[in-house]
Amino acid sequence: MEPHGDLNPDTDDLPLRANTNHILVRHYVLDMTVHFDSRVISSSVVLFLEPGSGVRTKAGAGDDIGHGTGDGAGTTDAGGSQERFASGFQQVDAIEDDTKGLEKVHGVEERDKAEFQVVADTDNIQSSHLWLTTNDSDFTLVLDCCDLDVSKVEELDITSVSAMLGLQPSERSEVYSLNPQAALIQRLISMPSSQWRQKHQLFSLCSRAPGAQDGSSLHFHRDKWSLQVRKKGVTSPQDFPRAVRICYETRPTGGSVRWTKDQDNRVCVYTAGSPINNRALFPCQEPPVAMSTWQATVRAPSECVVLMSGEEQAVPTEDGDTHFFIWNYYVTMAMPASTFTLAVGHWHQVTAEIPPALESGVRDRTDCDKTAKPRAGCGEWAEAGVASGLGSSSSEVVKGSPLQTGSGDQTTRSDSAFCFSTLEDAGLSVTDYSGMVDDSISCSHADYPCRFTEWSAWSQRVIPHRVFSPVCLLQKAQIGVLKLLPRCLAAAHAVLGVHPFPRLDVLIVPAGFSSLGMASPHIIFLSQSVLCAGNPGSGDKGLSLCGSRICHEIAHSWFGLVIGARDWTEEWISEGFATCLEDIIWAQAQKLSLQETTEQFDLKALLRWRRLSDELQNSREELQVLRPNMEKTGQVSNSGSSTVKHALNPEKTFMQVHYLKGYFLLRFLASQVGEQQFIDFFRLFVKKYHGQLILSQDFLQMLLITFPDMERKGLTLGAIYADWLDRPGIPKWLYERSAVWSQARLVEEVKAEVVKWILLSRSHQGKGRKRKRIEPKVNYKELTSDQLVMLLELLLEESELSVASLCALQRTYSLQNQDAEVRHRWCELVVKHAYAQAYGDVEHFLVHDQAMGVYLYGELMVQEDAEQQAVARRCLSLVQEEMDQSARRVVEEMVL
Ligand SMILES: [Zn+2]
Fold it and tell me: Which domains does the chain carry?
């Protein structure tokens, strides 16, 4: 990994500009139409706003202050806090515009062009024509936004919605009795979550209200990172409109959505899990403290399926005779806007039995051979002749599951059969944490219908789940994901307790997706690289990558989603925890004995240790720190804005330090308090903090209080920060432990095999071509996938390996049929020893495992071997178009 010398804080740090301390979005109503021909989503979003609980204005506005608005929108007290705003918000906005070097909000576009060349491309600047008539004493609503074309921003006339007029005044709303619009919205926002259905209906009605009489009253201005809205003459958030509609279109190359083709060569679009999150999908408040609910209507071509984070499986309805279907989704639990996830494409639901009509298609396309695809000039979006699963029969879509509250609809077909197919696995029904409900959970989060307080949710070990994939991967997705998913869900329930979300969809995303998986509320994206490469008949063997990755993403439901990081620089809070829990949950899913579990943990720990130490040796120190803002972590400016350190740095995208060092910190803590005690503590922690955002200290402090022995041993908060979170490099404990792991039983087994292979390789040397006679008959031990990874890594340390031994290696372990982690090491070995016979394996990997192949390109180029460089160029040209943008940039730099 080559350090990028020209680190530029203006481009490496992601700005979060929304002024969430002044005003908060409490609910979004989105109305989106997906146009595949133009690669555009045309959309409107209605924001329902509430003035913030106030800035703790200190002398000298612009200084950094404490932690924003607390843990969520629900904690805001909309009442009497006007005074506390003072005039802080105007000053802060001005200061931020100066310091960021962004165009002044009231500036003239042309004038500063040269000066801001680096940051502001003029394409990106947009304003309503009356923007200049507003001025700095007017209050500005700042939304995070980029790559969107905004056509209109308007205030809505809620008084025209007759259903709203019947709303009972709530006590707090009367503060605003001077302004009927504000009073109505406040009543709506304040409705208790028990009435969420009525509430959503009203939000929906309001979102369609006409613009306010003085329709042109809202003026907007867009710069590179934000959309700013003002109402002329309105100087405080209290007087700002509470319901605002923004009409806009996404841009085809916008960073939040990826327009691409799936493995069947059919068009699709999905939220890309980009570092800029959803701000190129809809203007929003990105800071995690701005938690809100949403509902969305998505119009898409009738043959497409629309998957989204939403609490119920949507049932599409026809949109007149437009050949579009309408899908409605919603959430009742307030979450950061970054967790909103959408995928629209021609995917099919994976069922226990694949329909024969599709099966023949599967057989023909099993290899998904990319080289056979029409390439270049992909603008035509030609549709492949694959039978459609949806449009023709919407029965593929399942109506609300019987277990979901309030969905009184009859279910279509025998849905429950596949939703709960796995309960036939009798072993799954043993664990029952019903006892935990008796401790009467008192939720500390904002008001939402919480599963932690529902008896029926606690007893639900496996939540309703579906798997979607392109046709050519249906079979692999069935053998791997569909089979493992219920086991992993039940195991997660056994380890962590109630599932925070009522349902789950899993989608096998296009090959260009840049990571192995991504978790969002109600939906997980999985890379095709985790699907098993082996034969259908090989049982559980070869499923460990798939299983542990599913467990990792499921663990995010608790750590990352229902408990989120308040400061995004503390990525370890979600990734370290999920990495730690993936082992625990996967061991549970496999029903391993205690000893087997320990052995597997030790081997995994050693593999991760090797990876971490390798990464730390090859990366810049400032990127190795888990809490880069240290004691300033979680702090925001008076307005609520901040920047996320290194978030846009492409080098960081490919680093794993947050996963690995975070995981080791948790292993370390587990070693101090005891394995089972640590898991019990996780459950306790989840009970206390679900529905909230946390900082490192929330977890560590509660741990230190729960286990007071730790502090007696000198393990203080300060010591943990110093050793693990605030410094680069490797903590001492880790050095010591790794020596122990490297002598674990499973590792010793591997070492014994390595010796055999080295001896074999040496026996070929100097023996000319006569190896046939001489080659000794060796009995090789069967190894697990993790052991094979270890074996290949150790062999990679050898400077020479004979061609014959490489050939035998490939044959003995059938390496081309192993999981992607094993194949990755195999490819490295092939490249290192220029084993040309297996270049096909390398090409296959680079084309089909794009989430993992980035550095393999570097290895192909660095050897200066013409044949290898040709392989790299050929593969890049094959997949360039579909590659993830940041991966593509990194690879092109290496190859071209
Ligand atoms: Zn709760």
Answer: 9-342 (2.60.40.1730), 349-366+417-557 (3.30.2010.30), 567-629+647-740 (1.10.390.10), 744-895 (1.25.40.320)
